[in-house]
Amino acid sequence: MFADRATISIRSGKGGDGHVSFRRELYVPNGGPDGGDGGRGGDVIFEVDEGLNTLQDYRHRRKYAAKDGEPGGKKRCHGKDADDIVLKVPEGTVIKEAESGKVIADMSGDNRRQVILKGGKGGLGNQHFATATMQIPKYAQPGQPAKELMVKLELKVIADVGLVGFPNVGKSTLLSRVTNAQPKIANYHFTTLNPNLGVVDLEGANGFVIADIPGLIEGASEGIGLGHEFLRHIERTKMMIHVVDAAGSEGRDPVDDIHKINAELHAYNAEIASRPQVIAANKIDLIYDDGESENPVERLKKEFEPQGIKVFPISGVTGAGIKELLYYVSTEIEKLDVAPIIFEPEYFPDEELINLDLPYTVEKEDDMYIVEGPKIEKMLGYTNLDSEKGFAFFQKFLKDTGILEQLEELGIEEGDTVKMYGLQFDYYK
């Protein structure tokens, strides 16, 4: 089974915790702090692999996690950084946040490798927290927490031209004749299950990439049958070739088929429906001219050429008319000069996953105000209080979470001491 989408859980590594320890040497009774820093947690990285053309691997395994960073050690020993986890995907894979459907990354064009979830930074050891007033700090910074996310992977085939049409109209036969692709060809009413890509080489003209995309059926825009799978793959194409059975060998009306296909395209995405089109009136070798009924190719031309949609009578079996069709398509693509369609990011995990809605407590003990809770510990884990920007973020955090308001309700005054884990500072408005 061709797999063009999958939903998986990804998790970056937690940063290693900073260490609390003190130097112990002979003749040095009160050695200073020497706790080392924690190592960085592993990133979750997506990378394009040219050898892949499906998301099949992600159907069997649903959870992927990078390793955590090692904690710091004694004697200023730095914890080891964790290895990143690299997930290989085919070119054209779009990574979306599963719940909202917003695009995180499009693995196409120049984007061959992208960090989706960053590992947590390692926490600072207690050696960093010694001050003139606190020379034996018993606090080390915890490692920044891991980030976890459910993502939806969708493979959207990258091709200049998409072959569209109902099942059994001869798309696979046409593709096999004009490219080096080797699609499975049979009379399946359930149609081709996977997009087949091939390169069309033309003498004296520019070649192009063409895709025989899973066959369309009525109701596709509502997700019936393989509808959404079909429509997902044409989102990147610059131009479409509508292949119809001009001979009506299965009792279908070719004019009606084109109208139905365009209606489905329009219902799914009007912008896609407005892209340039050309009609390949296939199976002309099967047309029986009784001299009385109107030739089906002429009917197609009368109906669609006034709308600017050119009709080419062809035979996928004998090869008749195919050359003219391909040279026309090549010329039209040159006129378009359309840049490849890349889906822009709409969801940024680094910003979205900072969750501060965790409990905390604010209490007064003797002359000191103590603020604790996982919310505070988490904030200290990813904030560098030594930098101006980090300290400004810390002050905003205290205000936005209501901690300052609670301290004032408890009667704090300027110059009073506030303690958060091992961190102590004087309160000033």
Automatic annotation (TrEMBL):
Q: Which residues does the record give as Mg(2+) binding sites?
A: S172, T192
One GO cellular component this record assigns the protein to is: cytoplasm
4Fe-4S recorded as keyword? no
- The answer to whether the entry has keyword GTP-binding is yes
Residue limits of the OCT domain? Answer: 346-429
- GO BP: ribosome biogenesis
Extract the ranges annotated as region (Disordered). Answer: 1-20
Residues where GTP binds: 165-172, 190-194, 212-215, 282-285, 315-317
Role of this protein = An essential GTPase which binds GTP, GDP and possibly (p)ppGpp with moderate affinity, with high nucleotide exchange rates and a fairly low GTP hydrolysis rate. Plays a role in control of the cell cycle, stress response, ribosome biogenesis and in those bacteria that undergo differentiation, in morphogenesis control.
Q: Which NCBIfam families match?
A: Obg_CgtA, Obg_CgtA_exten, PRK12296.1, PRK12297.1, PRK12299.1, small_GTP
- Name the chain's protein: GTPase Obg
Organism, per UniProt?
Dorea formicigenerans
Kindly list the organism's lineage: Bacteria, Bacillati, Bacillota, Clostridia, Lachnospirales
